[in-house]
Amino acid sequence: MAFSVYDGEGKLAFRVDNYSRKTKFLIGELLLMDPIGKPLLSLRPQIMSMYDQWKGYRGSDGDNLKKKSKSQLFSMRRRSFVHNRDDLLEVFMSGDGGGGSGGHGADFTIEGCFKKRCCKIRAREGQVLASISPKKVSPSMVLDKDVFSLFMEEEVSPELIMAFIVIMDRIW
C-alpha cells in the first residue's frame, strides 16, 4: 500500500508506505510520515481484537527504542464487533487509559461509511472536526474511491486525523 496525501495546493503533506497484504494479520506496523519520510505516528493492529482495535504511537519503533518506552497516543476500535456497512468507530486518547476506561466515552467518534468515502469525525461534544467525501471534478463526475476530499477544522491535528483515515482504510 502506498498512501499519499496532498494539501490544497497540490503539495505532498503525508505518506504511508507499506506493500504488504491488506489483511491486518500480515501488515504489522504502519508508519505515517511527513513529506520527507520522517515518522510521525506508528499504527499497530491489535491482532486478537474482535473490535478491529488499533493503537497509535508517537514516532516509530526506532524512536521509541531511543527513549526506551512506547508513547501510546490513542486507541481506535469499532463500537460493535458486528460488522455493519455504517459502523461507528471510537477513539480514546491515551490520557483516558487508551481504552476508554475513564468512564466518560470516546474522545472522538467516526460515523458514516468510509468504504463509500462519506463519513464524519466528531469530537466528544458532537461537533464535526473533519469530513470525508468523494472527490468530484464536476457535479456529474466523481473520481475513483481512492481519491477523496478531506475537510477539517483548523484546530484539529492533521496528523491525528490522517492516522484515523489510514486505520479506516485498513479496517474496511
TrEMBL record:
Lineage top rank: taxon: Eukaryota
InterPro entries registered for this protein in UniProt: LOR, LOR_sf, Tubby-like_C
Record family assignment: Belongs to the LOR family.
Protein name stated in the entry: Uncharacterized protein
Annotated source species: Dendrobium nobile (Orchid)
Lineage: Eukaryota, Viridiplantae, Streptophyta, Embryophyta, Tracheophyta
